[in-house]
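Ticket #311: bound-state structure for adenosine-3'-5'-diphosphate.
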Amino acid sequence: MEKPKTPLADVLEKSMAAADTLERKDLIFTYKGTVYPTTLCTPEVFKAMESFEARRDDVILAGFPKSGTNWFGQILSDLIATAAKNCKNETNHDGVPEEFPYLEVGDPEKYERMKKLPPRRLIRTHMAPQNLPESIFKNKAKILLLLRNPKDVATSYYHFSLVFSPFPSYESWDSFFKDFVAGKVPWGSYFNYLSEWNKYIDSEKVMPVSFEEVKENTYLGVKKIVEFFEFPLDEEEINAVVQRSSFQSMKKNSKDTHGTFGDVLFRKGAVSDWRNLFEEKHNLEMDKMYKEHLAATTLGARLKYDVYCKA
Ligand code: A3P
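RESOLUTION: The complex was predicted; output attached.
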């Protein structure tokens, strides 16, 4: 018998089917100055989201699209599930319907349903902090802020745009690159996104972690996340989470977790694939943008631009 679809697979497959019926120009809309994909986000949902009440023990995963949010989402949901098994007094997660994990995607009623979700809720988002519901900061929920170097994000985003129908496709890498740098892709400007998050960098509730550091040493990266969220896990359990979150393992399970979306999501999962795409003019432009917007910031330093983006 076929397994029931996860909300993630279901919503994404419906969004892809809806996008196939739309013209390119209708795939995106602008809300409060930022571009969003029409078949995933709506102004009604953004309005309803204002009423969202965060909890102190919510686990928030924030990251610009293509920074590895599905990878870190797998790590966090596995940590939450393992921790729940370890805590005998933990609320039972059985029987409560799951929600599509991104805060800003779904229907306007999702925030009412989310009130019934047991702790700890995992909430992923691509939104810039100034557009998030205030209660996330007011109620002191902890936020894992995912970073990935801008050249790999742009490269991943370009390949994804060619195959994910809800995002406008491009005739050339050059034309995509122009829109990426200008912040005209879904969820807007990578540079504004990180500049805005940099304002929260001194908060003890926000912990940045980079795709590159976790790729280099996944055990250490996951341990850092465990300590930040205070999950009661031992070394063996952390190692099991690390194994289950490997690119190969996630790709192998992707039919069950992501449905047909898995076919377009799990591409290479590597660091520095930008070298296959960037020419001198792209390197110069990216260097300029980095210098103007991020070089002087704490988060900019955390990107290790000189290491990961050096031409
Ligand atoms: P590439 O396109 O460079 O391969 P997001 O989930 O935010 O959309 O990010 C997608 C990127 O994360 C893709 O990058 C994808 O391959 C990569 N990714 C997904 N799962 C991964 C994993 N377990 N390990 C490493 N990278 C992963």
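RESOLUTION NOTES: The longest helix spans residues 69-86.
TICKET STATUS: resolved
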